[in-house]
Amino acid sequence: MHVVIAGNSEEAGRDAVRRIREENVDAKVQFSYLDLTSLRSVHQFVQRFKDRGLPLHVLVNNAGVMLVPERRTEDGFEEHIGLNYLGHFLLTQLLLDTLKTSGTEEACARIITVSSATHYVGEITLEDLQSSACYSPHSAYAQSKLALVLFTYHLQRRLAAEGSPVTANTVDPGVVDTDLYQNLSIPAQLCKWLLGWLLFKSPAQGASTSVYAAAAPELEGVGGCYLYNGRRTKSADTSYDEELQRQLWVRSCGLVGIREPSWRAD
Question: Among residues 85, 120, 141, 212, which one is catalytic?
Answer without folding.
Answer: 141
